[in-house]
Design a protein that fits this description.
This protein has about 240 residues and is α/β, with parallel strands linked by helices. The chain is about 35% helix and about 25% strand. The strands form 2 sheets. A 6-stranded mixed β-sheet has the order 6-7-8-3-9-10, with helices on both faces. It has a 4-stranded antiparallel β-sheet with strand order 2-1-4-5.
Length: about 240
């Protein structure tokens, strides 16, 4: 579903991502773990076609992000850690705007908006301007917007930050449901506990380089990663 091969991205003299290769299969929740500044967000933005990269290839559902970005975006949802929303719109107008972009029919969008707004207890707030939303409400709106076109691949950057425990639990259920239906999820976190409870496989990034990948049991059994794990411990995020 998502294939990253020898990805390299530099900023000036610094390699933010250095020769990274990972593969995410359909039906898989894949965690991208690393301390802040490790290169996770840069990688994610390259996968979504937001940032150009210097070397390597990224394929989404068999198509190249570099050569066929529109086709890749049609089957991808990106949920950033800090949603950049149009604050002058109401929640419902924003969701309809996103649905228009992806060509979602009136019937389908109404059903999906009703379903997910109810799931995240946002229905009563959809008529309000986004400028009045709290951070948590914006996160929920971003999740609904990402799900509205039923993407094959969901890419999320620190998705649980800012969500209350109930919303966190419901998002986890949606993630599992999505992958049970053949979709795939690639999400970043700097919290080990989150990855342990959710992920089928993980990749650990440190200073832009892949230092380990596999199941959580496999990577936690690697004694050479002790310092990396120490950096990731005791980070506060909602229970999942």
């Amino acid at each position: 579903m998502l294939k990253i091969e020898h990805l390299t991205k530099t900023y000036g003299d610094k390699k933010a991502v250095d020769d990274l290769s990972i593969h995410i299969q359909p039906g898989e929740i894949y965690g991208f773990i690393g301390p802040n500044g490790a290169g996770k967000t840069t990688t994610i933005k390259c996968c979504c076609g937001i940032l150009r990269f210097d070397a390597g290839e990224i394929d989404v559902d068999g198509r190249s992000v570099r050569d066929d970005p529109v086709a890749c975006k049609k089957v991808t949802a990106y949920m950033p850690d800090e949603p950049d929303l149009y604050e002058f719109l109401s929640g419902i107008k924003y969701l309809n705007f996103i649905a228009d972009i992806f060509g979602v029919s009136k019937k389908d969008r109404e059903e999906r908006i009703a379903k997910y707004a109810d799931t995240f207890e946002l229905t009563a707030d959809l008529a309000q301007p986004i400028s009045a939303y709290s951070h948590g409400m914006r996160q929920k709106l971003s999740v609904i917007a990402g799900l509205i076109h039923e993407p094959k691949l969901i890419i999320m950057d620190e998705p649980f930050v800012g969500l209350d425990p109930i919303a966190t639990h419901r998002l986890r259920e949606i993630m599992r449901e999505h992958c049970s239906g053949g979709g795939a999820i690639f999400f970043s976190t700097h919290v080990l506990e989150v990855a342990e409870k959710l992920c089928d496989h993980v990749a650990i990034l440190s200073q832009g380089r892949l230092v380990a990948s596999g199941t959580m049991d496999e990577v936690k059994g690697d004694s050479s990663l002790e310092q990396v794990f120490l950096e990731l411990e005791d980070k506060g995020e909602p229970n999942v």
